[in-house]
Structures are given as structure tokens and as C-alpha cells.
Please model this.
Amino acid sequence: MRSSPVIQYFPIFPEKRKRVIPASVLNAYNARLVKVDKDQILFEEGRQALDFFQVEEGKVKMYVLNPDGQEFTQGIFSPGESFGEPPLLGDFPYPSSAITLEPGKIWRMPKSDFLRLLKENFDIHMKLDQVLCRRLQYKSMILTEVSSYDPEHRLLTIIKYFKSKIAKHPSREKVIVPFTRQQLADMTGLRVETVIRTVKKMEKEGKLVLEGHKIKF
Amino acid sequence: MRSSPVIQYFPIFPEKRKRVIPASVLNAYNARLVKVDKDQILFEEGRQALDFFQVEEGKVKMYVLNPDGQEFTQGIFSPGESFGEPPLLGDFPYPSSAITLEPGKIWRMPKSDFLRLLKENFDIHMKLDQVLCRRLQYKSMILTEVSSYDPEHRLLTIIKYFKSKIAKHPSREKVIVPFTRQQLADMTGLRVETVIRTVKKMEKEGKLVLEGHKIKF
DNA sequence: CGCGTCGTATGATCCGGGTCATAAATAAAT
DNA sequence: ATTTATTTATGACCCGGATCATACGACGCG
Model:
């Protein structure tokens, strides 16, 4: 059992407390709230998009697998966040698959209702745009990293990014990075061993702190 | 002067003939059409976004430079395409810079007018979403490539992608790839030499055709 | 025309991070 | 409490693509 109740673990996408679409609106437009187990596949790469999705509880990972089993994580979504809209609105097959990381609840709404919802709710429509734009920002950032920077730079960038999402006011205070070495590897296009070695090196150089195996930054 | 009028060069983003926002609407919302030279910087990484942009004539490249001068191309925009909206709607600094690749004309509209336009034109608002979603699709694709595939796979993917954008109906007919080796390198996170060597290798293996130095696929 | 610039080409060398193997430390399960 | 699975750790080796140098080809321009 985890002992210390004091540890400041940070939620991965904390502003999810604010839902992209409020529950009341979801209900009004025929969305259904479905229970999901851990490791449940919500949709698969290549399939046609038919529904809008929003996390109510739990976490969802979007990922692609290459032929030799190597995974790349395209995104992780927490309560309040929607996901899988691009193929729905852009009219192309899913470029990645989605799987639940924990048991939880997921909102699901047919495309036609979703489109009607957007038409009738300008504010939500704008909120959606903001979400899409932030996602583009994230992808630009990662793409820049993966295309030209070394492991240390990539790790620093992603850690700082996630930290900045909690701390509205940038703080010197260290927080625990809520990812395993493997997860960091999958998000940055590195191998686990490389992440492990780089993290150790960064600790020696005082660029981060290790507390047990937890990374603090 | 370029001789042969028969060569089927393909436009980079051909459906740009359809403008994201029609000229009449742009005019109605205080957009100005400004003349630009070649190599003119439209905005720079880190700056605040204040305007909506749309190409009327010419081409625009969005790129990032890393400290040792290495460039990564985040996107190329042709007539009819809008660009630079994410920082405008997502409210964050420009993650990349934009520069014109040729002399041309660019529409420019203040943020406030743009927001009003979206509010009053649902169809255009949806069109914008489609554009943003397709851009996410592109980035997902490139990210998947850059994070796990070898040079040949990356080149094939990007060449096929651009080819598919012209040929509505997938065709066996070969077209000339309208990019230099350097441009392909900048879009795939490779070095020029690697692109050159890989292209030659692919020609030997019959995976593409070289006509002079032009790549046909 | 000849010159300058940009694009293409090719070889030699090097090294960062991937791969493989093996093990210790933690956490989870029963 | 003992087993089982997951995560972290470390060393040895290797190789693909980056880097550097150098040259040739193509094309637009005065």
C-alpha cells in the first residue's frame, strides 16, 4: 500500500477537471456513458470514426505499433478530455488505436449528434478548436524534439511540458514525474534503456532528482 | 526557361483551389490582401499570434531551427490554405516561424474579426475544423515515421502522401515529386546525404524512377 | 557566354543510441 | 508470505545514419 499521503503526484492533464463538453450537454445530445475495464480497446487504427469520445473517469492512451512491436504514444487523455475527433471531423480513418489504461467511464456520442451539438453551441465549438489547437502544439513540440534533439533534451522538454500543465504559476518546487521509464520512452521515441541511462546521467549532473526510483523535477 | 509543357508537375496542396475562406468573406471581415516577396518572414517562433493568415498566391513554409542550424519543416502551405491558426485559437506563442518561398499575396485578418467570422459562419467554422484535423493527421503520420521508421519508409510515406493529395483516384501513373532532396530531408528529419543515397538505392530496387534528377513516383 | 548559386553525388569516418542479455529492486497478486 | 509480474539497472556490442570533405551537374543571370 502506498504509504505517504503527502506526495504531490500530479494529474497528467489536470485541467480536465473542466470538461470539454459538460455532462448536461452530453446528455442532451444522446451521449451514453459507458463503463470500461482496464486495457479495453476503444477503436483501432485504420477503422472509420463514427463517434465522439470523452473521458469521464480513468485514462485513455492513443498509440501506434510498428511491425516489430515498437510502440509510439500519440497521446494520453484524462478525465474531462475528449479524444478521437480528428478522424471524425476530417473524414479519414483512425491513424492510431485507443486503449484504456484503467477501469473507468467513457462518454460516447454518434457523429450526427455531435455535429448538431457544435452547430447549436458556439462556445463549445470554440472550446473544441482550442483543444485541437493545443494538441497540434503538443505534436509540433514532440516532432521538433524527435526530429532533431538528443535524449536528454527530449526528456527535459516533455517533463517540463507536463509540469507546466499543473503549475499554473511556474514554480521551483519539485514534483514527481508520474510516468515510468517505458512510458517516457514511448512518448519520446526512445528505448527504455536509453531513458534509464539518460535519467541517471541527468541525476549525476543535478538536472533532476531521484527519490527511490521516482523522478522529481 | 522551363521547356517541356507536358511534364505533370503536381501542385503541392492541390485542393487549395478551394479556399478555406472565400475571398468575398475575407473582404467582408476586414482582411487585407498584402503583397509579399520571396523569403519574407511572416511571423517568428515565440511571438504572440495576432492575425489569421491565408495564402492567396505563392507558398509559405513553417519551420523550426535548432541551435546548430538544422531545420525541420512543420508544413508547407499553398494558395487557398490558411496557416498559423493554432496559436491564435489555442492562445500560446508561435511554435514555429513562417517564411514565404516565392513572391505572392497573403490575406491577413485581425483575431477579433476572425472570431466574429467563425461565430457568424458555421460552415466556414466546420471547414476550419476539418483543416485543423487534417493537419493533426499529417503530424501524427510524420511523428510515427520519424519516431520509428528507416529512411526508405519515411520517404515512401511522405511521397505517397503528397501523391494521394492530387490523385483523387489512386492511380498507377507516375508523377514528378516536386521537392528537392533537401526539402524531403527537412520534412522527414533526415540529412540531405541520406535522402540522396536512399533515393538512389530505391531507384536501383525499382521502387521509384529517376528522370534526370527528378524523382518520379 | 561564362559565372555564381544551388542541387546532386560519393566516399571516409565516427559515434550515439539501439539491441541483446542478464539481473536486481519494487510492486502486484494470490 | 511467497510467488509472479513489472520496472529499473548495467554491461557489451554493433550498425545506420550523421558528419565532413570534395566534386560535379544544372540552371538562372548579367
